[in-house]
Design brief:
This protein is of the alpha+beta class. It has one domain: Alpha-Beta Complex (Nucleoside Triphosphate Pyrophosphohydrolase), CATH 3.90.79.10. 29% of the residues lie in helices and 28% in strands. The protein is built from 6 helices and 8 strands; from the N terminus they run αααββββαββββαα.
Length: 183
C-alpha cells in the first residue's frame, strides 16, 4: 500500500458515524503531503493501529499506554512508511508479542483524528490514525513492550468501564459487534 492506494481507500471509505465523516476529507488531503507519514510534520501526521479481537468477537486486546496513561488499541507512528497496514501489523506484533495476528475482512476498519498533548519536546499535535481490524488467539502469551505499562484481553462488556468515554474506542467496539464472525 502506498499513498495513492491509501488515498483511493479513503475516498471510498464510508461510515455511518458522524464523528468520522467530519474528518475523512482531512485524511484524504493529507495523503498528498510526503511528510505526513513522518513526525516531521509537526501539526499532525499519520499513525496506524490495530483493533485486535479474538475470533469469537468477545474480547479486544488493549494496552495501558505508558505516556498517555490510557487504555488504547495498539499502534504507532508511520515513521516514513506509507504502508499503514504494515505499520499497524508491525506495531501490534512489537507491542504484544502475538504471532497469530491476521487481517480481517475490511481493509480500513476505522479512522480517527485526535489531539496528542505536549510531551517533553513534542508540542501538541494531531494523529491521523488509520485502523485495521485484526484477529488473534487469546491463548498466546503476551509480551509487554516499553510502549505499555500493561496489556489485557478485555471482554466487550467491560471495555467502556476501562476506557471511559473514549468515543473512538466505543465506535470500534460498536463496529466489531456488527462485523461478521468467521468461525
Amino acid at each position: 500500500m502506498d499513498r495513492k492506494i491509501l488515498k483511493t481507500l479513503l475516498e471510498n471509505y464510508r461510515t455511518p458515524f458522524e464523528e468520522e465523516k467530519q474528518f475523512v476529507d482531512d485524511f484524504i488531503a493529507l495523503t498528498d503531503d510526503p511528510i505526513a507519514y513522518s513526525r516531521e510534520r509537526k501539526k499532525g501526521h499519520f499513525t496506524a493501529s490495530s483493533w485486535i479481537v479474538n475470533r469469537r468477537r468477545t474480547h479486544t486486546l488493549l494496552g495501558l499506554h505508558r505516556k498517555l496513561q490510557k487504555w488504547l488499541q495498539l499502534g504507532g507512528h508511520a515513521d516514513g512508511n506509507e504502508n499503514l497496514l504494515e505499520v499497524a501489523m508491525t506495531e501490534a506484533k512489537e507491542e504484544s508479542g502475538l504471532a497469530s495476528l491476521r487481517l480481517v475482512d475490511r481493509f480500513i476498519f476505522d479512522i480517527d483524528r485526535h489531539i496528542i498533548p505536549t510531551y517533553g519536546e513534542d508540542a501538541q499535535h494531531f494523529h491521523y490514525d488509520v485502523r485495521f481490524l485484526i484477529e488473534a488467539e487469546m491463548d498466546e502469551p503476551l509480551v509487554i513492550s516499553p510502549e505499555s505499562k500493561s496489556l489485557a484481553w478485555v471482554s466487550f462488556d467491560m471495555v467502556e468501564e476501562l476506557v471511559g468515554h473514549n468515543i473512538s474506542i466505543l465506535r470500534m467496539l460498536e463496529k466489531t459487534s456488527k462485523s461478521e464472525i468467521i468461525i
